[in-house]
């Protein structure tokens, strides 16, 4: 493992059998896993380049059990790593050798469907797609749709603030979650938000969403559901140059058109997806845009004409418009299967996740091509083009000495490029361990210390998911120290506590 993690506490490891027995008293039956063979399934999340078996796995199925587990671990000074379905691509659920892995896979019940208020109250282990399936009979759906929606859990979506192809128009997870139940490291159970879109006080949901398991363990979530649009049609537009596709994206948004989704794939990704799904993608183009327009039929018909004209003005070489719901879904099937499709053409790949301003897309693509030549590694590009969220897939072979290190360096340079172009390190996959050591490229030490103070307010002893997000995790007491320079206290008139 080339990424350093916190050193294991040997005193805790020496009490492993005692800890497992205590956890079994809280979660009886098959709720605790401590054999080496059975814990292998938990040694990694979707970022499989990094693996670490946990000390012990606990699988509670009630909020009360979660509370007791966390309270026990805090009292014993034991680290805890929360885990959903394990589809995270940033190492957010990577276990610790001296930590308890707290799996939420048994929290798989939808507790309430409230069509009057257009919300669903669900447990965190329910898959993203299962929410839409549960309300489809009444013409509703849950908008955020990550490519892994068939497997990823809604709790993990909240932890990572996941996106998806339809988030351009309908928002990320943070725009579609209204409330949650969260258990703090102390065992305290909090209820934040609810069924109402507006709540008094600080926006605590905005803090919890995207907190990557560092602040608490989510045990219930209230999400917003939407009524399906009257009409939805997709355009599949090919371009001879990637830059022309990027220009088309900018012009569509500039014209005031907000598609339900707008995705881009380059030639390697197109060929991989077509061989895997047979969606009818054109193979003689350098870039492909999939643009979905939804709403009343008369509006969609007009928008299709406008988007076609914009694409032609950008030099499009082909344009196919879906004529049925089955064809629209087929267009999207290739895009949603792009990651596994690329896995068929390369022994290994790193899926990167950065975001740039839409106008910087041509520069970013040119830089990625240059880096590909520099490192001698192939790359397939898949983008949430509408909101500038890039997913370059760096192709490598872990069996070849030095290739994983080259892939990591290549990925780090892509993310630095995103920041240099005015973007950010992540769009939807989170920081985890993958981008942890790049945080100083985006944030100053003051910024990072302020973020850690927030972490301290929820988890003063730093036991929840340590080693993630922050390149250097300070003790909370260190962050509270007052700096004295030349014997003079800064701002002496401010009250001190």
TrEMBL record:
InterPro entries from the UniProt entry: FAD-bd_oxidored_4_C, FAD-bd_PCMH, FAD-bd_PCMH-like_sf, FAD-bd_PCMH_sub2, FAD-linked_Oxase-like_C, FAD-linked_OxidoTrans_Type4, Oxid_FAD_bind_N, Vanillyl_alc_oxidase_C-sub2
The protein's Enzyme Commission number: 1.1.3.15
Keywords: FAD, Flavoprotein, Oxidoreductase
Pfam families xrefs: FAD-oxidase_C, FAD_binding_4
Source species, domain of life: Bacteria
GO molecular function: (S)-2-hydroxy-acid oxidase activity
Cofactor: FAD
Limits of the FAD-binding PCMH-type domain: 50-228
Protein name: Glycolate oxidase
Source species: Bradyrhizobium elkanii
């Amino acid at each position: 493992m080339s990424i350093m993690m916190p050193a294991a506490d040997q005193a805790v490891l020496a009490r492993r059998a005692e800890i497992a027995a205590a956890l079994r008293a809280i979660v009886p039956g098959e709720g605790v896993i401590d054999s080496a063979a059975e814990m292998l399934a938990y040694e990694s999340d979707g970022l499989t380049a990094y693996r670490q078996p946990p000390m012990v796995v606990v699988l509670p199925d009630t909020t009360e059990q979660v509370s007791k587990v966390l309270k026990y671990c805090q009292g014993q000074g034991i680290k805890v790593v929360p885990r959903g379905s394990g589809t995270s691509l940033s190492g957010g659920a990577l276990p610790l050798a001296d930590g308890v892995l707290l799996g939420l896979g048994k929290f798989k019940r939808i507790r309430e469907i409230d069509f009057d208020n257009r919300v669903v109250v669900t447990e965190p282990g329910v898959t993203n797609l299962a929410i839409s399936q549960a309300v489809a009979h009444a013409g509703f759906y849950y908008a955020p749709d990550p490519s892994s929606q068939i497997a990823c859990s809604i709790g993990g979506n909240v932890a990572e603030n996941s996106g998806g192809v339809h988030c351009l128009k309908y928002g990320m997870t943070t725009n579609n979650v209204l409330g949650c139940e969260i258990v703090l490291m102390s065992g305290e159970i909090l209820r934040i938000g609810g069924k109402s879109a507006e709540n008094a006080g600080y926006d605590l949901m905005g803090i919890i969403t995207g907190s990557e398991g560092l602040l608490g363990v989510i045990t219930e979530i209230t999400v917003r559901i939407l009524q399906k649009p009257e009409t939805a049609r997709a355009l599949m537009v090919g371009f001879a140059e990637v830059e022309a596709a990027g220009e088309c994206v900018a012009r569509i948004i500039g014209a005031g058109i907000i598609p339900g989704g707008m995705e881009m794939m380059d030639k390697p990704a197109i060929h991989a997806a077509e061989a895997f799904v047979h969606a009818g993608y054109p193979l003689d183009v350098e870039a492909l845009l999939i643009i979905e327009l939804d709403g009343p039929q008369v509006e969609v018909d007009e928008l299709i004409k406008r988007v076609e004209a914009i694409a032609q003005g950008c030099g499009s070489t082909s344009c196919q418009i879906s004529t049925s719901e089955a064809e629209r879904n087929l267009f999207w099937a290739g895009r949603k299967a792009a990651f596994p499709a690329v896995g068929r053409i390369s022994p290994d790949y790193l899926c990167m996740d950065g975001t740039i301003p839409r106008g910087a897309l041509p520069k970013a693509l040119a830089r990625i091509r240059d880096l590909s030549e520099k490192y001698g590694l192939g790359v397939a590009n898949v983008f949430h083009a509408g909101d500038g969220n890039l997913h370059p897939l760096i192709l490598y072979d872990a069996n070849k000495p030095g290739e994983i290190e080259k892939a990591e360096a290549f990925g780090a340079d892509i993310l630095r490029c995103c920041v240099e172009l005015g973007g950010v390190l992540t769009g939807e996959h989170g920081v985890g361990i993958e981008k942890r050591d790049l945080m100083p490229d985006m944030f100053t030490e003051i910024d990072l210390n302020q973020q850690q103070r927030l972490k301290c307010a929820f988890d003063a002893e730093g036991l929840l998911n340590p080693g993630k997000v922050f390149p250097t995790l300070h003790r909370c007491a260190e962050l509270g120290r007052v700096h004295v320079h030349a014997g003079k206290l800064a701002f002496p008139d401010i009250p001190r506590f």
